[in-house]
Write a structure and sequence with these properties.
By secondary structure, the chain is of the alpha+beta class. It has 19 helices and 25 strands. The chain has three domains: about 200 residues, Heat Shock Protein 90 (2-Layer Sandwich); about 110 residues, Ribosomal Protein S5, domain 2 (2-Layer Sandwich); about 230 residues, 2-Layer Sandwich (formyl-coa transferase, domain 3), CATH 3.30.1540.20. A hairpin with a 5-residue loop joins strand 1 and strand 2. The protein is elongated, with a radius of gyration of 32 Å.
């Protein structure tokens, strides 16, 4: 009995469609590429139920004749290439002829098209890859494609789709990428009955970025200098030093007008920033790379998401050099000052208390204790024949109360020297403040929600589509953390309150992006409380007092009291020790006073 059999054409089409069409955003991407290849100057996108209900893409491109409309439904029917040699000189976004038949195989599909000089158009209706109707209709010049009930005949694939909000965010992201890549084209995006994007043709990329992300965001970008090297021509915008994200989500790379993912270019960006970027942070970039078509292979991924360069090292070098030239003037500017929190959260809106008493390198004993103490007598060096007198008991010579810890001084502008009843304590001021802030926030989270400090002037935040969708889904997490949020538009949010452990004067946009990345990295499978804990642990690290931050004696005393009141005062939230204790017995052994 034969075991090998040929699959039916319908199954073959569904398998092929699974490689090209991953989610509703894949449908939008393929249709947008066809519209742009057809010379469209206006593109309109509409969808319902996150794209699984219906997706419509209409353009004013060249349109198709009746014969072409039917041929484009055949697998590998394309006008972009004619021979294998053409794959070495691909100048269009699409070229395989797989998109239209793949979409038609997994949806209820309608194609309406008309050439500009034709008296009428053609409409083709398909369901699950089977042609139901072909007719002559009146239509506007261009092409309109409607895909309804996506994956209706593949329930296994349909149930793997995310929530409508998440799928909508992916569609918005795809449209945004193509709007950035083609600023001269007018774009309109409609979600259900709400217009979320309406962009007129822009003259420059800078104008398009301002339209999409806002003027305030654009101020944080640096234009790349004009550079055309042998390997590649690089242009666009990158974030100035100090502007970064916790993920690569805002690194937009375009190769010959095609949005792509390239690990090599991502590494080149990091290399260009070098020390201008903290470890674990990623730059913001709108990077456009132009190379000869024969120097890049776009046929290595079913969705054309990845590309391969013939000389990747040369392209990386071009990107690194161009970005570094743009950052050089920025690197000489004044560095961004780190934010330091006061130790008392109740005074968020008040100016920091003046520092009356600095403790630089190892100042001597506490002034109050020195005033009542006699000068230290000179002690001769012990000899082998000298018999050491019994030393006084701790009760008679040094403090024994648990709360009687005295700050002696600070060494290295980081480590605080403290005398306790048991000996000497070395305190890491940064790790100690981390622990204090962390436990304070955890207790507030366990009680249900962190307290909020109302802002005098609410701030408006504009986020990209994926970030906005994530915030909507996890709004409760941010509210639980004490961040007052409310929707203020399709991608905008109004922030009217902050938790008291954040300073009043803070770069709210960068702080919010950091928290957003941290909460997203925690994983949706974790509980809301755990998501909040992860964000707090990382956030307090950034906002605790740092090394070289001078603290006054009252501030050090306050930090010490709050640390000793913590449940786990000996380590910071990341497991590093906050203090090291040296008992009198250890000191006496070090000095040879005890065997």
């Amino acid at each position: 009995m034969n075991r090998i059999r040929l699959l039916s054409e319908q199954v073959v089409n569904q398998i092929a469609a699974g490689e090209v069409i991953e989610r509703p955003a894949s449908v939008v991407k393929e249709l947008l590429e066809n519209s742009l290849d057809a010379g469209a100057r206006q593109v309109r996108v509409g969808f319902r139920a996150g794209g699984r209900g219906a997706i419509t893409v209409a353009d004013d491109g060249w349109g198709m004749s009746r014969d072409d409309a039917l041929l484009c439904l055949e697998r590998h029917g394309t006008s972009k290439i004619a021979a294998a040699e053409d794959l070495e000189d691909v100048r269009t976004l699409g070229f395989r002829g797989e998109a239209i038949p793949s979409i038609a195989a997994v949806s209820r599909f309608t194609l309406t098209t008309r050439e500009h000089d034709a008296p009428s158009g053609t409409r083709v209706e398909i369901a699950g890859g089977k042609i139901l109707n072909v007719q002559e209709v009146g239509a506007a010049p261009g092409t309109t494609v409607e895909a309804r009930s996506l994956f209706f005949n593949l329930p296994a694939r349909r149930k793997f789709l995310r929530t409508p909000q998440t799928e909508s965010a992916h569609i918005h992201h795809i449209v945004t990428l193509h709007a950035l890549a083609h600023p001269a084209v007018a774009w309109r995006l409609q979600d259900e009955d709400r217009v979320v994007l309406d962009l007129a043709p822009a003259r420059t990329l800078a104008e398009r970025i301002r339209e999409v992300y806002g003027a305030e965001f654009f101020q944080d970008l640096v234009p790349l200098p004009e550079s055309e090297m042998a390997a590649a021509r690089v242009s666009g915008f990158v974030g100035r030093p100090g502007v970064s994200r916790g993920t690569r989500d805002q690194q937009h790379v375009f190769v010959n007008g095609r949005p792509v993912e390239s690990r090599g270019i991502n590494f080149a960006l990091l290399e260009a920033y070098h020390t201008a970027l903290m470890r674990g942070r990623f730059p913001v970039a709108f990077l456009f790379v132009e190379v000869p078509p024969g120097a890049v292979d776009v046929n290595i991924h079913p969705t054309k998401r990845e590309v391969r360069f013939r000389d990747e090292y040369a392209v990386r070098a071009a990107v690194t050099l161009t970005v570094r030239r743009a950052l050089e003037p920025q690197a000489t500017a004044a560095p961004v000052q780190p934010v330091r929190l006061t130790l008392q959260p109740e005074t968020v809106d008040a100016a920091p208390a003046p520092v009356e008493q600095r403790l630089p390198l190892a100042q001597a004993w506490d002034t109050k204790r020195r005033a009542s103490s006699a000068p230290l007598p000179s002690v001769p060096a012990p000899t082998p024949d000298t018999t050491e007198a019994p030393r006084p008991t701790p009760d008679a010579s040094r403090p024994t109360q648990a709360d009687d810890w005295h700050v002696i001084g600070v060494i290295g502008q980081l480590y605080v020297l403290i005398e306790s009843g048991e000996g000497l304590v070395l305190l890491d001021q940064h790790a100690a403040h981390e622990r204090v802030l962390f436990e304070r926030m955890l207790k507030q989270l366990e009680q249900g929600a962190a307290p909020s400090q109302r802002l005098l002037m609410p701030a408006t935040l504009e986020l990209e589509a994926r970030d906005a969708a994530f915030v909507r889904e996890h709004m409760a997490v941010f509210l639980q953390m004490g961040i007052g949020l409310s929707e203020f538009g399709p991608k905008a949010f109004l922030v009217d309150a902050l938790p008291p452990w954040l300073p009043a004067r803070v770069d709210l946009r960068q702080l919010f992006r950091d928290i957003l990345d941290e909460v997203r990295a925690g994983g949706a499978s974790l509980s809301k409380l755990r998501l909040g804990e992860d964000a707090v642990a990382t956030t307090v690290c950034r906002h605790a007092v740092k090394a070289h931050d001078p603290l006054s004696v009252p501030e050090l005393d306050s930090l010490l009291r709050e640390l000793r009141a913590c449940d786990l005062p000996y380590t910071c939230p990341h497991g590093r020790p906050t203090m090291i204790q040296l008992s009198y017995a250890e000191l006496e052994k070090k000095f040879g006073r005890r065997g």
